[in-house]
Design brief:
The protein has nine helices and 16 strands. The chain is α+β, with helices and mostly antiparallel strands. The strands form four sheets. The chain has a five-stranded antiparallel beta sheet, with helices on both faces.
């Protein structure tokens, strides 16, 4: 399989994919900033530059892996998603699909989709004014997490547990969107569940010194045995956003209810691999090869 990976070649994740690929697959790293499209005479080509400077036609790949979705301007993000959408529409398998990435990266949309599927989530209010946010703060019990609607790894999350701090925070908001979630006392622990196809692997993250449980914020990680409820919730969450693989964050409240907080359609796996021993890169490559083969067979039969 010739796999184009949208990632910088010097990243740990790309090197881990190369290790897992061995001689079986050819991996080509393409940096997002180098991708461009040529539209002329009714045709369109989507290309990018490899590390050696050679131009690569992304449509010649057997599949494209979206390893990450880096920050950028609104125009850059929209353009990148448009390119992925065109690749997929023209028959190149994109993992995860553009639609699933759009759904997962948007905290509001992913939460709404999960709720529609009956998945338990924390009480959340998303609004567009400081006065509405102040009212939501009170309705959610006066102890909330304010989150950027786009973002990961705990960046930009603030806990607000008193009215004065909340008002100050709302007044300083420049995005025009207030995403407020009732704070759930989870004892400084949560679960990151890696979903790859129909398989799940759990990792428990613990942080005795902070309510943020991301590994990047000092949490310790250990393998976790998943209950049927946790496993089913993770699979349902990935399915809700349409992701073939995903990192699903689950917290348990004091009543023992499992609540899905977030779905990441471009999850990292370094901490999970180190704590559980799972060869995520190897399993991910197998999944992508299966998807590529399945889609190619579908195209052949329809042709």
């Amino acid at each position: 399989m010739k796999l184009a990976v949208l990632a910088h070649p010097d990243t740990w994740h790309f090197r881990d994919l190369q290790r897992a690929a061995g001689q079986r697959h050819e991996l080509i790293a393409i940096d997002y900033a180098s991708i461009f499209s040529v539209i002329q005479k009714g045709a369109q080509k989507i290309k990018g530059y490899r590390i050696d400077g050679d131009c690569f036609d992304l449509e010649s790949a057997d599949a494209v892996l979206v390893r990450a979705m880096p920050a950028g301007s609104l125009e850059q993000v929209v353009f990148r998603m448009d390119l992925l959408g065109r690749l997929s529409a023209n028959g190149t398998p994109v993992v995860n699909s553009p639609r699933s990435i759009e759904a997962a990266v948007d905290k509001y949309l992913s939460l709404a989709l999960m709720r529609e599927c009956g998945i338990r989530i924390p009480d959340t209010v998303v609004c567009q004014s400081g006065s509405s946010a102040t009212l939501a703060f009170e309705q959610l019990g006066g102890d909330v997490l304010s989150k950027p609607i786009f973002g990961s790894q705990g960046r930009g999350i603030v806990r607000l547990d008193n009215p004065a701090a909340a008002r100050e925070h709302f007044e300083s908001n420049t995005s025009g969107i207030f995403y407020l979630q009732r704070f759930v006392d989870h004892g400084g622990q949560d679960l990151r569940v890696m979903v790859i196809g129909d398989r799940t692997t759990g990792m428990r993250r613990s942080n005795s010194g902070h309510w943020l449980t991301n590994a990047s914020h000092g949490a310790t990680c250990a393998p976790a045995e998943l209950s049927d409820d946790q496993r089913n919730a993770a699979l349902a969450a990935a399915k809700a956003v349409g992701a073939s693989y995903a990192g699903v964050d689950i917290i348990e409240d004091r009543l023992g209810n499992n609540l899905v907080v977030e779905v990441n359609a471009c999850p990292g796996w370094r901490a999970l691999k180190n704590s559980t021993g799972l060869d995520v890169a190897g399993e991910l490559l197998e999944l992508i090869a299966d998807i590529s083969n399945s889609e190619n067979k579908t195209l052949s039969s329809s042709g």
